[in-house]
Amino acid sequence: MSLLRFCEKGRIEAGCDEAGRGCLAGPVVAAAVVLPERTQLHRLDDSKKLTEKARERLVPMIKNEALAWGIGVVGPKDIDRLNILNASFLAMHKALDALVLQPDLLLIDGNRFQAYKQIEYRCMIKGDGRFRSIAAASILAKQHRDQLMRELHGEHPHYDWQRNKGYPTAAHRRAISKMGPCIQHRQSFRLLPEQLHLPLEGPS
């Protein structure tokens, strides 16, 4: 099924999506993208359906083709303070703040959102597989977050974030069990199945 170019013809629509909501470490990252109704982005799709190489190829194309795009990042301390749902909303708001063109309709991936500047919005379940603007946002958010996790891997190499990107893989959890969590881990998350309390690795 081909992705839809717009939800309502003639409106300035921004697609919004986030990456990293289910991770144990690192930030949650959101992106917002306003695409022209006629766009030449070939093979655009939900980021989860694309290889890393395909996403890397599409990032500069999306940024060049978009009428506006923005990225929002919310770190683990704020995730712990706000909870992951509200932190995801905040990341989307930050991405929308970064747009140079104000949309009049927001297309949000998922089933919940927190209103932004009284702009009309529509929650779209599996929207990244339905609308081009949301798919583009999913790719920008995913690739931006992956790059941040590769950089954090240099500071905390024993968690192997360059490969697991902070997701709860068996290897990641084994590293937490052995080393304890670090300042980039989300302390409000269940880091280990049997977790009671684990001190932060090293000085905070």
Secondary structure: elements and pairs:
Layout: E1 13-19, E2 28-34, H1 52-65, E3 68-74, H2 76-82, H3 84-97, E4 105-109, E5 121-124, H4 132-155, H5 161-164, H6 170-179
Parallel strand pairs: 1-4, 4-5
Antiparallel strand pairs: 1-2, 2-3
Can you tell me about this structure?
The protein has 204 residues and is an alpha/beta fold. The protein has a domain at 13-153: Ribonuclease H-like superfamily/Ribonuclease H (Nucleotidyltransferase, domain 5, 2-Layer Sandwich). The protein has six helices and five strands. It has helices spanning 52-65, 76-82, 84-97, 132-155, 161-164, 170-179; strands spanning 13-19, 28-34, 68-74, 105-109, 121-124. Strands 3-2-1-4-5 form a five-stranded mixed beta sheet. Strand 1 and strand 2 (28-34) form a beta hairpin. Helix 1 (52-65) packs across helix 4 (132-155) and helix 2 (76-82) packs across helix 3.
The strand count comes to: 5
CATH class type of the domain at 13-153: Alpha Beta
Distance between the amino and carboxyl termini: 48 Å
- The number of distinct helices, counting runs of at least 4 residues, comes to 6
The main pleated sheet reads as: 5 strands, mixed
**Structural class, from secondary structure content?**
alpha/beta
CATH superfamily of the domain at 13-153: Ribonuclease H-like superfamily/Ribonuclease H
Could you please say which CATH topology of the domain at 13-153 applies here? Nucleotidyltransferase, domain 5
Residues in helix, %: 25-40%
Shape, principal axes of CA atoms:
globular
Q: What does the average pLDDT come to?
A: 93
Rg is 17 Å
CATH architecture of the domain at 13-153: 2-Layer Sandwich
Low-confidence stretches: none
Percent of residues in beta strands? 5-15%
Order of helices and strands: EEHEHHEEHHH
Strand order of the largest sheet: 3-2-1-4-5
